[in-house]
Amino acid sequence: MATDPYLHLVEVLSMFDNADKYIPFKVINTAYKSFDEGRSHINADIFIPQTILSKQDLSKCPVMVRIHGGFLVTGSSRYPVWFANWTLDYAISTGAIIVAPDYRLLPEVSGKDILEDMDDFWHWVHSSQFAETIKDASDGHVTPDLDRLLVAGESAGGYLTMQLALSYPSEIRAVIAAYPVLDVKSKFYTEAYPKPILGVPNFPNEIIEEHISAMRAAPSPTVITAANPPDRLKLAFSVFQNGRLLEFLGSEDNLFPMNRVENLAAAGNLKLPPTFIFHGKQDSAVPFEGSQRFYDLVREKAPGAIIKLHGEEGDHGFDFAATLETDWLKDGLETISKGWLGSTMVH
């Protein structure tokens, strides 16, 4: 009997659900924002490499912001399956602190709320509270160097990464977007047709309707700031497969990275830090063409921008097995290290 493709996917995910990959780091979980009159919080995880802590020298460390994916509907800052190993290795090799935020998820909130969380997170990273948290965790040895800030994210996190890059280009030294959601108005996100994601055929609209009904029936509004798949994964697939993303995201101009590039260029304000986008050419969850169109638009509107697009054979999450020695990644990270750290050196 053939296995159910969704159950097969869940089984594969569970095989890689291993938090041991965080052992080389001291991990601090802390709130960066409270809402609902202080009753609810949104958290971020800070990862400090043990190699830095063991030196016990005073270290001013570059910072890597890493934003998780999950269709804006599921995922969390510390869900191990989607936290690429190369990202952790890159932080260790560059002596960087990683800070990974959660954010409120669709459909309980709108895209506007999520972008507001990202702005609040950004201001928190630049606050004394962030520096103090790191200082306390390192017995006073480590301070974050906010002049050397890299922002990286995958999938829906790539969308949020690019939004931050367009909002705060002068505060960010470099950007890595892995198979990002960029061409949000394209028919993949706005129309329903058969679109198996990672081999899983379309889920029905009922999954969304039942979720919305349960939300409406709840005695008080629920807000979800983190979910580890398979939690909410069917809902996420269903939103994308049924072309309903914008219904929950919203329609304001600033929700669409392509529009923002056009508008900023028209106003003479388009700036982008050195950017490396990579994407699987057979991506079934976020079509490769979106990254291509975004890249072409930036090249046209900001010819001087340093932007690199690498298309690799593979589906969503194809970089799972990549290492710092993988040719295409090594090549892209050289450009990034130069922009971020002022050198191509990864020591």
UniProtKB/TrEMBL annotation:
The keyword Nucleotide-binding appears for this protein: no
One Pfam family it belongs to: Abhydrolase_3
Keyword terms of this UniProt record: Hydrolase
Single annotated GO MF: hydrolase activity
Gene3D superfamilies from the UniProt entry: alpha/beta hydrolase (3.40.50.1820)
One GO BP annotation of this record: antibiotic biosynthetic process
Domain Alpha/beta hydrolase fold-3: 65-186
Source taxon at top rank: Eukaryota
PANTHER family to which the protein is assigned, alphabetical: AB HYDROLASE SUPERFAMILY PROTEIN C4A8.06C, ALPHA_BETA HYDROLASE FOLD-3 DOMAIN-CONTAINING PROTEIN
Annotated protein name in UniProt: Alpha/beta hydrolase fold-3 domain-containing protein
